[in-house]
Amino acid sequence: MNLPLHFGLLGTLEAGLIALLVGLLVYALWHRVCRWAGWSAGYAIGWACVIAVVISAGIDAWKLFYMGIMRLESPQFARMFLATVHDPNELGSRVVLEVAGALAGVALGWLIFSSRSGEKNASTP
User: Fold this and answer.
1) Mean pLDDT in runs of 10 for the chain (125 residues)?
2) Cβ contact 90:8 at 8 Å
3) pTM for the predicted model, two decimal places
4) Nearest to residue 55, comparing CAs of 1, 3, 125?
5) CA-to-CA distance for 93 and 111, rounded, in angstroms?
6) Backbone conformation region of residue 8, classed left if phi is above 0, alpha if psi is from -120 to 50, else beta
7) In contact, 100 and 23? CB cutoff 8 Å
8) Could you give the dihedral angle defined by the CA atoms of residues 90, 6, 12 and 66, in that order, rounded to the nearest 10 degrees?
9) How close are the terminal C-alpha atoms of the chain, in Å?
10) Other CB atoms within 10 A of residue 16 CB
């Protein structure tokens, strides 16, 4: 996400909560699109999961992948790369909580919006 968050566990939890809100918002948008197009909830859930994870964990996941693939043999290259990472000590846990938060936000959105749709459908004869 590349936001100025706190360091350590608090920053990791902040990133997870922001990802939860992103997942909820993305699912709300996809729910509207799928209702308008007449698609099932599966399309909304699937695309919302993919987009929410890319938005919330994309940059941090790429940096984690890049750090694992690139040969940072020179201390100068390692310092240059680590300077671009907000909190290198918590990068892995931040990616995990961002992905989990995004998926949990989509699931929460599905629970909220499917219960509303069920109430509307149950009230009409």
Assistant:
1) 71 90 95 88 91 91 81 74 77 91 94 70 51
2) yes
3) 0.80
4) 1
5) 26
6) left
7) no
8) -40
9) 46
10) 22
